[in-house]
Specification:
mainly alpha; single chain; rod-shaped; about 0% strand
Length: about 30
């Protein structure tokens, strides 16, 4: 169960980082 929780947390962090990077790119491009 711990491994599944870790994977879920890691996936959430990765998704947040991707969204932040996209947002930053949009800000830079505009």
């Amino acid at each position: 169960m711990a491994i599944i929780t870790m994977t879920m947390t890691t996936m959430k962090i990765v998704v947040i980082i991707i969204l932040v990077m996209k947002y930053m790119v949009i800000l830079i491009m505009s």
